[in-house]
Protein: Sporulation protein YqfC
Organism: Caldicellulosiruptor owensensis
Amino acid sequence: MIKRSKRDLKQIALLSQLPPEVITDQPRITIIGDFEIVIENHKGLIGYEDTLVKINTNVSPLLIEGNKLVIERMDNEIIVVRGEIRSLKYFPESDWEK
C-alpha cells in the first residue's frame, strides 16, 4: 500500500467530498454547551476520574477536565462524556505524566 502524507490525504478528502476525519484518521470532537463532549474516532480510554478523563487519539493525548464527569457511552468509535466541563486540552505525550 502506498503511504500518503497528511497533506495528500486532506486533498483527497476535499476532492472526494468525504469528511477529512474519515480519510486522515483524525478525531472528531463535538462540544455541546459546557455539559457534553462527543469524541469520535478515538484510540481508547487512558484514564478516568470524576474530575478528569484521559483519551488517546491519533493527534495526541486529550484531557477533559471538569466536575462530576461521567462516561455516558463508550464503544470502538465514540466516547460521550457528560458533566461540568471546564477544559479540553491536547498535549504532547512527553508531558502526559506531569
The two ends are 38 Å apart (CA to CA). Residues 6-16 form the longest helix (11 residues). The chain has a mean pLDDT of 83.
